[in-house]
Write a structure and sequence with these properties.
alpha+beta; four-stranded mixed β-sheet
Length: 194
Amino acid sequence: MDEPNNHHCPKCGHESADLVTCEACGALFEKVRQRKLNEEVTEMVYGTSPYTQSDIRPERLPLWQKAAVFGVLLMIVLAWGVNRLQNAPPGADGLITFSSTMVPDGRPAVAKFHAEWCGPCKVYAPMFDQTVAEYGDRLKVARIDIDKNPDVARSFGVKAVPTTILFDKNGKNVETILGAVPPESLKTKIDKLF
């Protein structure tokens, strides 16, 4: 390909005194040169490959390849989860701590599910803490961060935060409250547990 400083038009080959446009065909040297360069790069990238761009879309993959990709991703996720459980420090928030806290012992219980990144959870936390503090030892309280305890949240079907779950004296899930509730409303619902 001729460079523009040789004064040859890359489109028609005419020799021109003007460095910007060809006197014969009126083509802009830089635009024509750039277009040819783009075509060459596209041909090098896609033309020599046995696969075209449409061949690598997921819907074009055979079922066995989709299954293999899914299997590899599943193994990675499971390995990460097992490693996380094995390396958890003793006493860390988790299913064991939650289960031992919520064992039925004749007292009603309240579990609040929250996340650190959740704005409504931050507003609801002081109201919740103040309300449950009024009951003292008569009420068991668990505060569960869904990011640190995803299995616990999943086991109770928590899909949004804040979520408050009320348990009766036998450990039965009596009511699930979605979102932040006023302290008076929460107190009324807790009083029904006694």
